[in-house]
Write a structure and sequence with these properties.
The protein is α+β, with helices and mostly antiparallel strands. It is built from 3 helices and 5 strands. The chain has one domain (9-118): 2-Layer Sandwich (60s Ribosomal Protein L30, Chain: A), CATH 3.30.1330.
Length: 119
């Protein structure tokens, strides 16, 4: 059993790629949506040694085509902490009504992120 606290905070976000069928783009947007809506003003007061490097961050992103997500790109969107990113199959995919030059209908790709923070 760890002597740390995990998770202390859990937040969610969504990200959408409207036309590109790009799982990484949708995943990054879901993470950025989550980060934009959260502020931890006293986090240093509760982290071991007051160091944000000791913060543990676990991100799970549910997205169609999870195997196509560049988890290193997604991990790089976090400003600090020991970050783990996992892409799992989920989210949503549906036609967007646009027909490309190749005659193939485009899709909307939706990713859902759940981010847990603690130490």
């Amino acid at each position: 059993m760890s002597d740390g606290v995990f998770p202390l905070i859990i937040e969610t976000g969504i990200g959408v790629d409207l036309t590109g069928d790009d799982a990484t783009k949708a995943a990054v947007r879901a993470v950025e949506d989550t980060i934009r809506r959260v502020l931890f003003p006293r986090m240093r007061d509760v982290l071991p040694d007051g160091d944000r490097a000791n913060m543990r961050v676990e991100a799970t992103i549910a997205v169609p085509g999870a195997d196509r997500v560049d988890v290193d790109d997604v991990r790089g969107r976090f400003p600090y902490g020991q970050v783990t990113v996992r892409a799992v199959e989920g989210g949503h995919r549906q036609p967007n009504g646009l027909i490309g030059d190749d005659g193939v209908e485009g899709v909307i790709l939706v990713a859902v992120a759940v981010i847990a923070v603690g130490w």
